[in-house]
Amino acid sequence: MSRRWQWFHRWGSPPYVFRVGRRWQIGFGLVGFALVTLGWIWGLAFAPVDYQQGNSYRIIFLHVPVAFLAQSLYIGVAVAGVVLLVWKMKLADAAIQAALPVGAILTFLALATGAIWGKPTWGTYWVWDARLTSMLFLLFLYLGAMALRPALPSDVAGKAVALLLVVGVINIPIIKYSVEWWNTLHQGATLKLTEKPAMPPSMWIPLVISIFGIYCLAAYAVLARLRTLLLIKESKSQWARSYAEERHGL
């Protein structure tokens, strides 16, 4: 095996991922909690009032991070789907199982907070806007992938879910560019890597902090679910039994 690819195969080993994942899980949890606390206190209590939307804009400190992450996490599970289909790596299937519920919750939060924000801004909780509709479709993709697994035999369920996720990734650029391709009610991107933020630093800095914090907390949740799934799937292996005995002091 080429030394260049050793890292790839190492991350396909359940005991290695379980052991290393614990350190990453703790780190992501602590950093995420600190960043979210800082970002939300700064954004909710100290950021200035928006001259157009008043205080209602402050929901962006939750809405924008979860909306970003819902899309990023879907790309992540689609990549894991490719790994499963091409390299048949079982750990990729476990990662998909761990991440799908987290992604579904994030997408639901994005839709719910967007509706709350939309009422005072647009005068309605929901319109069949291109951005909103494509985000709703993203939620259906998450839920559909979760429902597909128990509906199929176990030997083909993982591959079927992976294929659905890979095909569904076409929805991500539709979400991103919907406000440019169509005449939509939804505003354009709040932050762009290629442009200077339209907001003052006292608004966009806590927003960026909140985004990084939510990403870290989501990583904590996915790793926690992944490590639990690995213990269940590998319950008959020596490393899992040894861990269980050590945990219970046997």
Write up what this structure looks like.
The protein has 250 residues and is mainly alpha-helical. It has one domain. The protein is 76% helix and 0% strand. The protein has helices at residues 6-10, 14-46, 60-87, 90-122, 130-151, 154-168, 171-181, 201-233, 238-247. α2 (14-46) packs antiparallel against α8 (201-233).
Largest sheet: none
Q: What is the 3D shape?
A: globular
Class of secondary structure makeup: mainly alpha
Low-pLDDT stretches: none
Structure described in brief:
The chain is mostly helical and 250 residues long. The protein has nine helices and no strands.
List key phrases describing it.
9 helices; globular; 250 residues; mainly alpha
List the helices and strands and how they pair.
Blueprint: H1 6-10, H2 14-46, H3 60-87, H4 90-122, H5 130-151, H6 154-168, H7 171-181, H8 201-233, H9 238-247
